[in-house]
Amino acid sequence: MAMLPNPLPALAADPTGSSLGLALPPGRLVHDTDGGADGEPLLWIAEQAAGPQSWEDALPARSVGLLPVLVDLGGSPLEGWELTRAATTYPGDHDAEEVLAGYWTGEAWRGADSADGADSADGEDAEGHGSPADDDWPGLAPAPAPQADPDEQAAGAVGRIVVSGDVRVALVHARRSADIPAAIGWGGPLNHEGDVARLCAVLRSWEERFGIRVVALGFDTLTVSVAAPPRTPEEAAAVAAEHYAFCPDNVDQGCGSLEEYAAKEVLDRTLWTFWWD
Known about the structure:
The protein has helices at about 55-60, 95-105, 105-115, 150-160, 180-185, 195-210, 235-245, 250-255, 260-265, and strands spanning about 25-30, 45, 65-70, 165-175, 210-215, 220-225, 270-275.
């Protein structure tokens, strides 16, 4: 699928987007915030907090290649997010299962220290991280039966997010919703993964299997809507394993066990939220 040219630069001279057929509220363009020299803006963000209608009002921008996402500033100004595309690759160059299996077995997080023999005898790396899981990688969870339209599910989920905090609607030039974090060089999972495009490859897989849409980003949080969530404990357990590889802090610093996490945070849940320490 061909990608439309980036329309964000046009908003510098046309803040409302009228030349693009849009009617944007007051907002501003955000460039690389990590001191880089990225020529094109990364995103447009509204000046005012989002309301119940903000998501729907932003949807016409999809016709020119801009996708909506909620940005939860949560006391952390966007200028402090260290957004940069300098170290970000293309999500389509990575395989979701290979990425997750690498995290599950520890191949991705051990890094260079492992090659130098710096892993300890008890399976911890030089920084004291334990192995992500004791069992073999179980493989990708099967896709449940289709249940809802993903875009309609995303629109319905927004109302549960904008009710609190300093949440703004933003527009990002991205090929698909799963690519939004990579498109802006988001660094939320930096302590887990330095190239967010690898995680976006997993999000692409979840788009295809579970109908997810990236609906909100915080400084270190990611929220997706889910159109086809797991409906049985067995399905939830399989998805929970993927979540653990994707974001181990959700379990390790949350409920502490995959079984409890699957029951409380995955089964029948139409919003998945991830947080990296």
